[in-house]
Queue: 2 jobs
Job 1
Amino acid sequence: MVVAIGRCSYGPHRLLRSTTIYVSGLHFHVVGEGVVRVRSQRAERVYDKENYIDFRMRLLGEPGEGPSLLSPGIHSFPFKLGLPLGLPSTFLGKHGWVQYYCKAALREPGGLTHKNQQVFIVMNPIDLNLEPPILAQPARQEIEQRVGVSCVSGGPVFCRVSLDRGGYVPGETIGISATVSNRSKVTMKSTKASLTETIQYLCRGKVLASETRELASVSRGKIRPGESEEWLNEQMYVPPLPPTNLRGCHLINVLYHVYFVISPKSLDKEMKLQIPIVLATYPLRPEGAPVGTAPSKRGAHYPSTLPIFRPWLDDKAFEIQE
């Protein structure tokens, strides 16, 4: 079951009995929690936890009353539960998770308890139209770095990169423009732009582990000494991703960046520009358009559904740092 923030979750809770039974109470418990478990460099297990929901209700039986008789058949116990605003979305990661589930316990007068548990998924969407307006503006970075080991082969390489804006949703494309000027005597073997997702796991405010995966990339070939290269609104597709809004969670961060990397042919280290972006659930509307207007970003192919989980969590392509 998927529940959106700001809406109510409705029962009923159904109970199937094949025989007559006396019960002293039917208890319902809703739990939302974030958990991080990381093995440190000393092989110690580090654990942290925080709670978002801890709601209990009694669906049958009152304290001090005698047991109730349940006849064979299906019994329904209606309820209504409004989720508080600001809950982080459901998330499953390699070293931690945000989970929501409800538990039911049927107690017999003799002390025997029958238990059941059901997970439900919470989605807290991010609407780009409600985010700071700067996300609708271009994002820019620039760098100049000296390449080469001596005054003979050394020289500066200048790079300026801009994105058409700072916020996107899956199905849209990121427009990348760049200028690379190679004033050194070293050939740049390639330039590459990539979209990455980084998941950080924290314990007591410290990042204990992180994993990074490349989600999409665009690349070009070499730039010889004295030459320049221009990227003019190159398009990089944002693939379908699980909705991720972990605002309100202090144990897990999910960050998205566009990296622009220039790789020299020499032993010099790569030049790397990092531009943070926001990946949201609802796209920007045209300026001045009323609520409900369809998005109009050119080249967008919005998926009809988004995945709930990340299928690559067991992929060895992750870079894990502890």
Job 2
Amino acid sequence: FPKNPILQFPGVPGGTRREHVTKSHKAEQWAHSARIAYTMSALIAVCGQFESALGNISLEDLARLAQLQPEMTSQERVIDGYLELLRQARLDAETSLENMDKVVTYFQNVLSVNVSADSYDTSAFVQNTFQQIMAGIAWCKMNNQRLSYFLKPGLEECDVAEFVRTIGNELAQCEQLAIKGSKLIPTEKQLKLTPQANDDIQSALMVLQKIASILHETCGIASVQININPESDGFDSTRLKEMIHGEVEKTNGSITLEKTFEPMRLQVFMDASTKSKHFIQCFGEWLYGD
């Protein structure tokens, strides 16, 4: 059985240190491992929905899904390819996960079109979704820490350092909310997953992945550039901000350098924090119904 991807690059006593980021590829490997864990958790969530739905949907819906078997078989081969790399310990930081992301998106789209929310085990789905959220937060935290070490020593009061602290604090709060939410899920009955609750869950996941991708890609650029100059101990605030700015523009459109952090702050504060708190507070109202 393949190793847990998060264990392929085990951590070190004392946690990630500056030299792991600026003088070696260890932190890059750990970040990629966290990225794999997030993608796998997303796959588990959507496949779990399919598995439980197949026993509850109508024969008509089942026949419609059966017509997609050739497409699904090709997706299965992609998954098998990644699992084989994992068995051979070759699923490393150089391996692109783009095709795995496409598999997850494919099954999510098929599910949304062909399977209604009352056809699958909603309790298991929400539990798996919380696991996905926590995996995404772990991925964000890993790269946020890398970002802090890409700053030259002595720049702890600059705007990038403040941004890193803000992201870190919000991620910690969201992690606690996700843990709290996962403990509220009953095992003895199904949840009533309303369209509003489902929309909020999908919105939260989209925001989380966007933030995670910005942090991951920024660190990837910084890693490449710092390897060009092995004597460097980091970047100044302006250079690192420019890297973040480039990735923010890819997902949010044109924005001035001075406003680089605004989209990230809005997403973290309003979506990941406020909406997550609202989700927890309204858990019973949304999911239990009466």
